[in-house]
Write a structure and sequence with these properties.
By secondary structure, this protein is of the alpha/beta class. Helix content is 30%, strand content 26%. It has a seven-stranded mixed β-sheet with strand order 13-12-11-14-15-17-16, with helices on both faces. A four-stranded antiparallel β-sheet has the order 2-3-1-4, covered by helices on one side. Helix 2 packs across helix 3 and helix 8 runs parallel beside helix 9. The structure holds S-adenosylmethionine. S-adenosylmethionine binds next to helix 5 and helix 6.
Length: 350
């Protein structure tokens, strides 16, 4: 059984995506934010758009108390760790269903944190040697092989446990991918003009590429200035294109130029380092805009947010695949980000 974590409410979309990609069958959702199914080995190389995290070889273990859950987790892990004498690390979380029942979610999150702490204490006693390298999620050295244990608490008495070896695919991506945002991994910025600021930061994190000091960025649909602010903070120069107003501290920033213009028709005189687009326009219009920029070679890299209605983005995904093929966007990343709602984000370059 393979599991995938997704945003709450996107389980069906993810199940359809996985089935259409031919990576497995019988996908269904046993809990909010979780999809499981039988995957083919070809699934190893496929990173779904709507999954935030992959839980390879996962099983459900049960326990009515924390002690029972820890025992069940130990019983599931001991034989696997015995046959894989690698440094290992463990990530313990809940799926994302905050919006559905925040009280229950907060309770489960606290319980998951406690379970993690107690389990690591148990393992430190018995498996000191193998645990020493990777006690924290953040300290994983991606260049060295290691063993990943993921434990997802879907209810008070139910824990989904995944065990896998981490490896690198030919495209340079690591599997199992672990793209869930760790709470707090994007530091809070009290000056961020809006929530969108975090979306662009997350997109850069996903792709592992960031604007550099002096880079020229064109931000289409920039107001109130979240994305522009994110780029300015990294030392870039930004042309913020929008009819609407920017927050004063963004507008008055010495490296910000506010262009009161139609972002849809805007084209820079010289190629820019980055093009950002977060305009609320029809998805096909957004893709048309991106195509024009690609044809003109008007930017080296881009982050484009494609917004849609409902939860059936299949036609849009087909159009994106055509664009990828036509312009040989081999490194294009398409992702339903943690901060995305009815939208997906394209991150790529020429
Ligand atoms: C979702 S908001 C962008 C938020 C922005 N990324 C941020 O972080 O603050 C969409 C913006 O697109 C702008 N917009 C929509 N159509 C536009 C157009 N044709 N030209 C310029 N701006 C446009 C709207 O005025 C609005 O400010």
């Amino acid at each position: 059984m393979n599991g995938y974590l997704c945003a709450n409410g996107w389980e069906e979309t993810l199940s359809r995506e996985l089935s259409a990609a031919g990576v497995g069958e019988h996908f269904h959702s046993p809990a909010a934010g979780l999809v499981v199914g039988e995957s083919h080995t070809s699934g190893l190389r496929y990173e779904p758009i709507f999954a935030r995290q992959w839980l390879p070889s996962c099983i459900a273990v049960k326990g009515t108390s924390l002690t029972e859950l820890i025992q069940a987790l130990g019983a599931a892990l001991d034989p696997v760790l015995d046959s894989n004498p690698l440094p290992w690390t463990m990530h313990c979380c809940t799926p994302d269903f905050y919006s559905e029942d925040s009280t229950h979610y907060e309770f489960l999150s606290g319980r998951a944190a406690l379970l993690h702490e107690k389990f690591i204490q148990r393992m430190a006693k018995y498996r000191k040697r193998t645990l020493e390298k990777y006690q924290n999620w953040e300290t994983i050295d991606e260049k060295r092989p290691c063993f990943i244990v993921q434990a997802v608490l879907t209810d008070t008495d139910c824990l989904w446990v995944s065990t896998s070896r981490r490896f690198k695919t030919e495209t340079g991506r690591f599997v199992p991918f672990m793209r869930s945002l760790i709470p707090g991994s994007i530091p809070h910025d009290s000056q961020a003009p809006c929530r969108s600021y975090y979306k662009l930061e997350e997109a850069w994190q996903q792709a592992g590429i960031f604007p550099r000091k002096g880079d020229v960025c064109i931000d289409l649909g920039a107001a109130p200035g979240g994305w522009t602010w994110a780029a300015l903070k990294r030392g870039a120069r930004v042309v913020a294109v929008d009819f609407a107003e920017l927050k004063p501290h963004v507008e008055n920033h010495p490296h910000c130029e506010h262009s009161i213009d139609n972002g849809y028709a805007f084209m820079p005189a010289r190629p820019a380092d980055w093009m950002f687009c977060d305009m609320i326009v029809r998805p096909m219009a957004t893709l048309g805009l991106l195509e024009r920029w690609l044809e003109h070679k008007a930017c080296r890299k881009f982050v484009v947010n494609v917004k849609f209605r409902g939860k059936e983005p299949e036609t849009i995904l087909t159009a994106i695949e055509e664009l990828r093929h036509k312009h040989q966007l081999t490194k294009l990343i398409i992702k339903h980000l943690y901060y995305d709602r009815n939208e997906i984000t394209l991150i790529g370059g020429l």
